[in-house]
Write a structure and sequence with these properties.
single chain; binds zinc ion; 15 strands; 7 helices
């Protein structure tokens, strides 16, 4: 068994199952936090991606090795508001038992359960999502973005320009995933953004995988801060070696973003949740369970 980085291993979070109503009766004093916390986070299974050749993400030594990447969406409750981070593989893939091969033929996307069904289990409809943001605009993160055209959407300006510019395919973006967002309320960011204005959720720019990639720092009331990686890092082994995948848009930016994430983790004590790391993702409870 591989040893996990302490920041990843130290889950230790209280877990409650919404389905069985086992909510915490504990109103005891909470640990002091310098910033406010959200109420809870749901990690939602938003598909799997089966790659033919892992080496595109790692090193030539992995040439020809198949690999399964996990893929999650994250739903965050803050008082009366909901924030959705990433939208996963397209829901329509749930009706394709053999999955859907990507245009480059490098991987097959699967979706066991549509995102709308997972949200419904939590008691949330797309129209309830007040805030929506994606780590970046690749198909496995933007697959259901059109469902959230009525939300306030946060996107880095560099990503916006790549998505809605003249050459979205150059960045491996799929214009159909954004066709309903052209007239949406998109707030263009040029750096950090404090979503709720109380420090509980911070969008952090982490460019390199795509021009305007971003990651999310979420402060949980009991588990403490977590940093949602997006694709700034795909695998635990890449993080440990600060390895930049050959598929990334800009290698220097990628390295600088990982350095910034490292500094943020050291400053906040955040645990790093690496979205596509199958092994780590399997250890995080999935919705309708949630983490406080
Ligand atoms: Zn990506």
């Amino acid at each position: 068994m591989r040893l996990l980085h302490p920041a990843i291993m130290a889950f230790g979070f209280p877990l409650f199952l919404a389905a069985c109503g086992a909510l915490a009766p504990d109103n005891a004093a909470k640990p002091a936090q310098s910033a406010a916390s959200v109420d809870r986070i749901y990690a939602i299974n938003c598909g799997e991606n089966h790659a033919k050749d892992l080496s595109a993400w790692t090193t030539p030594a992995d040439s020809g090795k198949p690999h399964v990447f996990s893929n999650n969406c994250y739903l965050i409750k803050h008082r009366a508001d909901w924030l959705l981070w990433d939208s996963g593989n397209p829901d329509r893939i749930a009706a394709m038992p053999g999955g859907l091969r990507n245009p480059r033929g490098t991987s097959i996307a699967f979706m066991k359960k549509p995102l709308v069904d997972s949200l419904r289990e939590i008691g949330v409809a797309p129209a309830d999502i007040r805030y929506f943001a994606m780590s970046h605009s690749h198909g496995d993160h933007s697959g259901n973005a059109n469902l959230f055209a009525a939300s306030t959407i946060y996107m880095q300006s560099a990503e916006y320009d790549a998505v809605f510019g003249s050459e979205p395919q150059k960045y491996n973006f799929m214009p159909a995933n954004f066709e309903k967002l052209r007239d949406a309320k998109i707030v263009k960011l040029n750096g950090d953004h404090d979503v709720f204005g109380d420090g509980s959720v911070l969008i952090k720019p982490t460019p390199g995988h795509t021009p305007g990639h971003q990651s999310l720092l979420v402060r949980l009331p009991k588990a403490g801060p977590v940093l949602l990686s997006g694709d700034a890092v795909h695998l635990k082994s890449n993080w440990d070696n600060k390895r930049v995948p050959s598929i990334n848009y800009n290698a220097d930016q990628s390295t600088r973003s990982m350095d910034a994430m490292d500094s943020l983790i050291k400053a906040t004590g955040a645990k790093l949740w690496i979205n596509h790391d199958f092994e780590q993702s399997a250890a995080i409870p999935k919705s309708p369970a949630f983490i406080e």
